[in-house]
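User: two proteins, same treatment. go.

Assistant:
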Amino acid sequence: MSGRELQPFDEERHWTGIIGPAKDAQRLYNYAASQAVEMAALEPKAPWVGYEGQFEGHEDWWAQSNVRNIPYLEAKAKTLDSGADVLPLPQRVQVDMGRLGPSMQLLQQADNFIQTTMATHDPSLGRFSDREKSGRAIMALQQQGEAANSHYLQNLAMAMEYEAKVILDLIPAIYDRPGRIARTLDEEGEGETI
């Protein structure tokens, strides 16, 4: 199916489709998604930090806490040398999720680029914001996307019509001998041999 025909140059006809202009935006989306998954996969599980001796007697449970879902972990209460103040419980080292932010922003921007180049925005994709509450507003936004890409459907209809002409022209040449059987389908989908 040919898309929009461009102005001829170099004595050749050229067309552009709906996918071609969005390829770079899709590459950016794929890159950002891969980068986000890679960062999350390479991020180590946060280790536990505690005072010396707090893990005594429970080392096996603490060692498995990064690979198993353990319902509770025990720690020995430790006090300062003075013996009055109890030290805080072990805590996880905080993971730096700030590095993931740029990848998520790139994903959002690439999604916008794809929608813009394909003239298919959120309402056409079934994603509605709080602003589009009424059915008329939603339908109007969907019709904008349909109108922007209607020439592709028109070209498809013309291509199907041309295909039918080609097939009808070839049938006498291919089914040319007597006794040849062909299977046809009627409007209800019932098969018949002729």
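Protein 2:
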Amino acid sequence: MANPKFYLYARKSTDDEDHQVMSIEAQLFELREYAKRESLEIIEEITENKTAKKPGRKKFAAMIDEIEELDGVGILAWHPDRLARNSIDGGRIIYLVDTGKIKALSFPTFWFEPTPQGKFMLSIAFGQSKYYVDNLSENVKRGLREKLRRNIFPGLAPLGYINELREHTIEPDKRTFNKVKNALEAFATGKYTLPSLQTKIAADDLTGLHGRPLQISTIQRILANPFYYGMFMYRGELYQGTHKPMISKKLFDRIQQISHDHAKPRKNKDLKNILFRNFAVCGECGYSITVERHIKKSGLKFIYYRCTKKSKTQKCSQHS
């Protein structure tokens, strides 16, 4: 029987905890050299930046679908864990080996032959990969639970603080702590809107990640973050933190009240109950008629109706 043709598959997850796994470029170089040494004919090279912890890799699924339509091909990968780290994908590969759709699996770092012993060893390799992922996930969860028990925020410290990796604590950032505090105290005076606070923050040279200016949405999150008065929110629950508070709870509540007041829609009481308001439209262009109240020097009040002229394509000759 002729030797099968091979799909070359290289994968590296962007969130892969196993930092020893080679980059895709390194895998491609090694696999191409291995294919030359072993005289393997490559019909297609497939690369993917996607975790194999769970099913859902589009390129991998497309490759498997193609294999099911062909008459016996092979797969070349660096290691079995590049193909699967979950039971569904691993089981699917073993089944295709059983049915003869996959004639050969070749790995520079792992021995495999389509024999009962080879398939047994392959299933163990897939099982070990899944065990590694499951165990690592459980260790991460246990670490998060331990941090919560110690009242330490289990995440990336917000602006003004840094994660102290040696002690696994969160400490004030000497570069930004006072700048964030000044911004919070300034907003609490009630003299700043969000745009004017953004201007002040930029003038104080307070920036976000990679030196980028803080956007309004980011500033809103800072103003509403209980972390700055000593608490922290995690999965919908509020916890007491052990980190150094930046402001008092009283000042934080003052900031929330001002933010709430700024968010209220402003109503023009003078135009309330004006006849035809929000009803009449322009007879020429069809856009709405707006209402304006003017007070003359004599004290007389006049109400004017005019077209809003919102159309960008149709000119309206009515007076503004």
